[in-house]
Amino acid sequence: MSDHPELDPRARRVQLPSRILGVTRYLYVYLPPEYAAAPRQRFPTLYLLRGHEREWVNRREDASRGGTTVIDVYERLRAAGAVGPLILVLPGMASDDNTVPGMLTDFHSPARAAHVPGIGSGRFQRYFFEELLPFIDARFRTLPGARAVAGFSLGGYMAVKAAALHPERFVSVGAFDGAFPYASDGGRSARLAETLFAPPMFDTVLGVPRDQAHLSANNPVCLLCHADVAALRRITWLIQYGPEHLEPWGSNFYRGEYLLRLLRSLGIENSAPLAALPDGEHTWRLADRHIEQTLPLHWAALQQVVDQAYAPR
C-alpha cells in the first residue's frame, strides 16, 4: 500500500539530480497507455506548473477537488475522443516543503533560503530550461517541437514567463487565475510598489528591498513586451481566471484582464472558450476545470506537430 494514498498512482515519481541547483529535485510523469504498447512512437508533452510536484496529482490538495486529479480529467477527455496520447510532466518548482516558491526564477538572494530543503543555488530558471526540459526529452520518448505548458496561480505566472522567454519551445500556453504582476512604462519595467510580491515568502526570490532590475527581468509582462512578437503569435494562448466579484482574495480577474489587454496589443487573441469563469474561485476544482476546457485546444496545437512528424514522405 502506498505511503501517500492521496497521490495518483498513475503518475510515476522521477528523481533528477540537478547540477545547476546542486540538489536532487523530483517530478511526476504520466505516460499514456500507448507509451508501452508502441515502443517506437514519440509523444507530445504538456508541462503542468504550480509549486510542489505533488499538487496536480494530489486528490486532497484542497477540499474542493472531490478526490480526483488532473489525470482523471485527461483520461475522461481521452475516453471522449477530445484529446490524443500525451505525456504529462508535473515538476516541482518550489522548495521540498513548498514554503519558498521557485517561480521559474534565478533567485536574487538564495543564501536567505540556504537552510530550506530543495533550493540549493536557487537558479530555477536555468534548471527548468537547461536541465529539466532536456532531461525529459532524453529520458522519455517525447516528440521534438510538440511541447505545451500550463499552470495555476503562480504556475500561471511561470507558464507565461516560460513562453515569453522561449516562445520557440512551446506550441501552446495556458494559465488559470495566474498571479501576473503589473508593469510600468508601457511594460518596460516592473512596479516597485507591486503588492503581489510583498509577502516575506518572496524575499529569497526577489531580494530585500525589492530590486527593480531583477523584478523587471522576471516579470512575464515585461518579458512579453521584449519578446519576438512573431514567435509569440505562433503560440496558442489559453488564459482563464476567476470573476470580478471574487476580487481581491478569491480571484485574479484584474490581473488576467491586464494580461489579455497586453496580448491584444501584441496582436494575440486568447483562444480559451471563456476568459472569466463565472464560478472561478481560486481552487483546484477550478484549476482542473481549466484543464478540462483547454486541453482539447492544447491538443489541437500539438497535433499539428504530430501530424507533420508522422506525415508520409
What does this structure look like?
The chain is of the alpha/beta class. The chain has a single domain (12-309), classed as Rossmann fold (3-Layer(aba) Sandwich), CATH 3.40.50.1820. 33% of the residues lie in helices and 16% in strands. The chain has 10 helices and 9 strands. It has helices at residues 34-37, 70-79, 124-139, 154-165, 203-206, 212-217, 220-226, 229-233, 253-265, 284-309, and strands at 12-17, 24-30, 43-49, 87-91, 142-152, 172-176, 183-184, 189-190, 236-240. Strands 1-2-4-3-5-6-9 form a 7-stranded mixed sheet, sandwiched between helices. A two-stranded antiparallel sheet has the order 7-8. A hairpin with a 4-residue loop joins strand 7 (183-184) and strand 8. Helix 2 packs across helix 10 and helix 4 runs parallel beside helix 7 (220-226). It starts with 11 loop residues before the first strand and ends with a helix. The model has no long low-confidence stretch (mean pLDDT 96).
Query: What integer value in Å does the Rg equal?
Result: 18 Å
Spatial strand sequence of the major β-sheet? 1-2-4-3-5-6-9
Give the integer mean of the pLDDT values: 96
| N to C succession of SSEs | EEHEHEHEHEEEHHHHEHH
| Count of separate DSSP helical elements | 10
Main sheet summary: 7 strands, mixed
Q: Between the first and last Cα atoms, what is the distance in angstroms?
A: 49 Å
Principal-axis shape: globular
Report the top-level CATH class: Alpha Beta
Using DSSP, what is the number of strands? 9
Unreliable stretches (pLDDT < 50, length at least 5) are: none
The proportion of residues in beta strands is 15-25%
Helix-residue proportion: 25-40%
Kindly give the count of domains.
1
CATH topology: Rossmann fold
CATH architecture grouping: 3-Layer(aba) Sandwich
Structural class: alpha/beta
What would you give as the CATH superfamily? Answer: Alpha/Beta hydrolase fold, catalytic domain
